[in-house]
Specification:
389 residues, mainly alpha, 21 helices, 68% helix, 0% strand, globular
């Protein structure tokens, strides 16, 4: 990957703070002393993410601290931020470093990026993903499982950040690379979410229905992974049908989704892939989402009061999205102070995520409509979500 010119300065600074020599760092990271010297002296401006991850692990820092430092957290226009990722998906741009990629290396690098996906750290991902996508593309058929997983998470991220065309390309490739039907269904779940965000509700209903029917397991024998994949497809069907004025279909689908969740006996949260997390709490949050779509704010608040949100980590695909529904319901009930408090909570939990949510923007506009002046806290939130007023 091509790195910023001050990579060498950061690498040298962190190494010295750790009290390590170049030789010790090379040994601990499993790289050549020559490579460490060239990087620190600025003679090399490209190296693989796998190598940077090993250097970061040896230095006990995040890979992102070497890739782009604190400046990676600064806001940038979306088109500029995601252009390198879009180019990598098209096979364009980038230089070829000396070290060839390996399947274990790409897999380990993707694993190291998962916390960034789970916590919506977009700036860091925008820097790290292009090189990793190119590395994965250079590998053969033996890399299909890790390549499919990388493309799936990239498509999910691009859907989250409204880069819809690029998301479509990533998810379509991920389905082709999937090693089995269950993995393909997990990608289709995200593709259905993309279609819904694009406003293609009829297509979403048809897609989710087709795959849910095909995947429907025998409940008594189903694995947690099978119930999760089937349940998520039913949720996509239910939420799209509710938006498409198909309340009967929505009710049937959410009832079946709940059946799958109850059969699991609790929340399913595989450590290796947060996108597959599923269970009774997930279903209840989606029931609240449908209630909000149906303009039943009292129902949203009642359902939310029964959901143990403290048991869930604040990720955008579950708790934070639910909290926006709660804030919206509070606004509908003219509880503007409570709505603002909920929005502030989301902002502190997921500052990069909330800036990409038009829903948050719309809810906050309703919170402050009619106010002649804003409190300092309200002005801070308006700046954070780029609300011009």
């Amino acid at each position: 990957m091509t790195t910023r010119p001050d990579l060498g300065e950061r690498l040298r600074s962190v190494r010295k703070r750790r009290g390590m020599t170049q030789r010790e760092l090379a040994s601990d990271a499993g790289v050549s002393l020559s490579l460490v010297r060239k990087l620190e002296q600025g003679e090399r401006d490209n190296t693989r993410l796998e190598t940077l991850r090993r250097l970061a692990a040896a230095l006990h820092v995040r890979t992102a601290e070497l890739i782009d430092g604190p400046s990676a957290r600064q806001a940038r226009p979306d088109d500029e931020l995601w252009e390198p990722v879009r180019n990598a998906l098209l096979g364009a741009g980038g230089e070829t470093p000396e070290e060839p990629p390996t399947v274990p290396g790409v897999s380990a690098a993707l694993a190291a990026l998962m916390p960034f996906f789970a916590h919506d750290e977009y700036a860091q991902l925008s820097v790290a993903l292009p090189a990793l996508l190119r590395d994965a593309d250079q590998l053969g058929d033996e890399a299909r499982p890790v390549r499919a997983r990388l493309l799936h998470h990239t498509g999910w991220l691009l859907t989250q950040t409204r880069q819809f065309d690029a998301a479509d390309a990533a998810l379509s490739r991920a389905i082709r690379e999937a090693s089995n039907e269950l993995e393909a269904a997990s990608v289709v779940n995200t593709l259905a979410w993309l279609r819904m965000r694009q406003g293609r509700l009829g297509e979403t209903v048809a897609l989710a229905t087709e795959w849910a029917d095909e995947l429907e397991p025998r409940i008594s024998r189903a694995t947690m992974a099978e119930l999760s994949a089937w349940g998520w497809l039913l949720i996509r069907l239910a939420t799209a049908a509710a938006r498409n004025a198909q309340p009967g279909e929505a009710e049937d689908a959410i009832r079946l989704a709940r059946t799958a969740a109850v059969a699991m006996g609790g929340e399913y949260a595989p450590r290796h892939d947060f996108l597959k997390a599923y269970g009774p709490i997930t279903v209840e949050m989606k029931r609240a989402e449908i209630a909000m779509v149906e303009d039943r704010p009292d129902r949203v608040i009642a359902l939310s009061g029964q959901i143990p949100l403290g048991d869930l980590r604040p990720t955008s695909n579950n708790r934070n999205r639910h909290l926006l529904d709660v804030a919206h319901a509070r606004v509908k009930l003219r509880q503007h102070a409570e709505a603002f408090d909920v929005l502030q909570r989301v902002r502190f939990d997921a500052p990069e995520w909330i800036t990409n949510q038009r829903y948050a923007h719309d809810v906050f506009e309703r919170v402050i409509s009619g106010r002649r002046t804003l409190t300092p806290e309200m002005k801070e939130l308006a700046d954070a979500i780029h609300l011009m007023r």
